[in-house]
Amino acid sequence: MANIKFFTGMDIPLELHKVRMVQKLNLQPIERRAEAVAEAGNNTFLLKNKDIFLDMLTDSGVNGMSDRQTAAMLICDDSYAGSASFDRLEAKVHELFGTDFLLPAHQGRACENILAVAFVKPGDVVPMNFHFTTTKAHITRLGGTVAELVKDEGVKTTSDDPFKGDIDLDKLRKFIAETGVERIPFLRIEAGTNLIGGQPLSLQNMRDVCGICREHGIMTVLDASLLQDNLYFIKAREAACRDMSIREITRAVADEFDIIYFSARKFGFARGGCIAIHDRKHFEAMRELVPMYEGFLTYGGMSVREMEAITVGLDETMDEDVISQGPIFIEFMTKELIKRGVPVVTPAGGLGCHLNAREFLPHIDDHEYPAGALAAAVYLAGGIRGMERGTLSEQREPDGTEPIAEVELLRLAMPRRVFTMSQVLYAVDRISWLFENRELVGGLRWVEEPSSLRFFFGRLAPTSDWQEKLVKKFRADFGSSL
Ligand code: F0G
Predict the structure, then answer these.
(1) Catalytic residue at 457?
(2) N6-(pyridoxal phosphate)lysine modification sites (predicted)?
(3) Fewest CB within 10 angstroms: 60, 186, 329, 385, which?
(4) What's the CA gap between 416 and 226, in Å, rounded?
(5) Torsion sign across C-alpha atoms 391, 451, 43, 350
(6) Phi-psi region of 159 (alpha: psi -120 to 50; beta: other; left: phi over 0)
(7) How far is the CA of 395 from the centre of ligand 1 (A)?
(8) What is the pTM of this model?
(9) In the chain, what percentage of residues exceed pLDDT 70?
């Protein structure tokens, strides 16, 4: 993104790329959107792309690729073993992280499976700033649990703390003393903490946390899936790092950790997964699991085309103009919504703009899923697909009780280099309209509730005729507009 002052006083981000390949979108009329959301059981995961205008479900595997990435995909080396495409990827990861070993996997959660199978045993506890759904699932499946040590500010939806993803060092010391190192297989830090609104950690916090772990001989693991946003925030928000290049910050981060894994659906702007390792003994502890679960050691379930795209994508990630696009668009959208009184998570993080559903819809009980209802309503209002990140995404306890999520958010992800400024402004417009009419929105109840991963497959229905009322109000306010 370019830091441009406009003669006309406009205050908008300016993209430093041009779009050279496009995909046609459909904006269905609201009556069709009402049918589509009912067909999808009010679950945005079950909507079809043909009914979606702005797909803000996720930034995973859907980022805009560059001309250089697409070109690299044509000169890949298609061999089962010893592919030159893997060698190029391995060399790039070594260049950026300084790690000596690389294990490939088909995506981020596959890396998590390998790490968990190699290191977690029943009774273990894995400390982390905050869990991610798939990370936690792999650890608990093997009889372990997770301990969240993010600082208290992290779960406050509004704040001016620039690094809400930081680990609380006192909580960490207390946790180690109480748990005992033998039950701690590793500590995990998630850069750009996903579930609390894409919030970054400071380099200083990573150094302090890893320092404490080294004192106790605890292995450290970085989930770098959202590192690109976090790198940008370290440079933009951490005074001591202002004069460092993105490459230098990347290396300083990587030097702290024993193992770094990432979903290349996010980090690398393509599709795949990697585990980068400093120490041979950690590499050997995981190596045999790759051919067992993923594929041979020189592809690990990834296509060679994707490996080439990741290699170029990682290189482009070192360019501040490239990685700033996501956070700056998100900050723009967040500020525009704040101007109109819409409750959002602050400060703006990476990944997407996060609406605070509990404040947006205070009249909806937590057991009627404010964030799920908001996801359905935002789709109705504008054909915009977001992702519920709240109680619906939690799992029931074995006795059937439903844990209420700490934060109840609707995530509107901003895949990088995908949306235009007018599309972002359209989203702001429709969300602002919905906010004005928020009292019309009602809750949701289960129609089909699967016992696990209910947010992926479950089906819900509105608790009243609120969706019909919202459609009527839309027509009254917008006439025949789409
Ligand atoms: N770690 C983090 C921090 C993630 O955000 C994700 C995926 C994963 C691991 C798993 O990687 O999808 O390649 O298997 N996040 C996606 C999202 C699904 O929409 O936020 P994966």
Answers:
(1) no
(2) 266
(3) 60
(4) 12
(5) positive
(6) beta
(7) 18
(8) 0.96
(9) 100
Query: Which of 223, 229, 258, 315 is the catalytic position?
Result: 223
Residue with tokens 């981000």: 13
Contacts of 332 (CB under 8 A, 6+ apart): 12, 13, 424
- Pick the atom of ligand 1 nearest to 191's CA: 3
297 vs 289: CA distance, rounded Å: 10
Active site residue 140: no
In a 3-state reduction of DSSP, which class is residue 410?
A: strand
Atom of ligand 1 nearest to the CA of 264: 13
189, 167 in Cβ contact below 8 A? yes
Q: Which residues contact 157 (CB under 8 A, 6 or more apart)?
A: 197, 343, 345, 346, 356, 359, 407, 409
Residue 389 a catalytic site member = yes
Query: Ligand 1, from 56, 63, 265: best to mutate by most atoms within 8 Å of Cβ?
Result: 265
Segment 251-273 mean pLDDT: 98
> pLDDT tens digit string along 323-363?
999 999 999 999 999 999 999 999 999 999 999 999 999 99
